Amino acid sequence: MSGDSTPLPGPLAGAAQTALAWLARAGVPAVLAAPRWNGATAGEALRLWPLALLPDPTTRGGTSQDVLRLRVRFLVAACAGPGSGTSPGGTEPTPAAALVAMDRIIAASVDAPGPVSLVVEPIDPMTWQAFGTIPRAALQLDVPVRVARPAPPTVRVREPLHVDIAPIRIGDPREV
User: Fold this and answer.
1) Residue 39 has what pLDDT?
2) Are the C-beta atoms of 55 and 71 separated by less than 8 Å?
3) Which residues of 98-126 are buried (b: 16+ CB within 10 A; e: fewer)?
4) Is the pLDDT of residue 16 over 80?
5) First-to-last C-alpha distance (Å) of the chain
6) Model-level pTM?
7) What's the topology of domain 11-148?
8) Higher pLDDT, 62 or 53
9) In what order do the strands lie in the sheet with 67-78?
10) Which sequence spans correspond to the domains of the chain?
11) Beta strand pairing status for 67-78 and 117-119?
């Protein structure tokens, strides 16, 4: 447990922290926010957003009841505004900066694989419509999540142990 008094995050918040930390190790500035054009801040090239909670394919065929294994699929999308330059104030990242950041993610998925895996699948156009934005350069990442099921409470023994002794009949070993 950590030294501060803040509680540990739940499994989904932990998956988001894992993905953000992995992106930071890859040298990619990203924030946990919906992928929209507006609201980009200085140094922010990508946004990370949870898209789906999926079953973990490694559990197919298994019947482990003690741990629930899932994957959280994240969308990593460019948040740079339309156009080819920076915003007039110079605070919005360029689309080229977002593409360089995505190149780093692809390289990191090959060079330093870890708990985060790159998903090479097309992004459904309905995703962009749901966010109210136009399609843009984006990647998908999967982060595994394990949720331990609580153990049933142990029944306490409230009476002294009582053993009934019964005679053992030893038969003839030739009789089967």
Assistant:
1) 54
2) yes
3) beebbebbeebbeeeeeebebbeeebeee
4) yes
5) 60
6) 0.70
7) STM4215-like (3.30.2000)
8) 53
9) 30-32, 46-55, 67-78, 138-148, 117-119
10) 11-148
11) unpaired
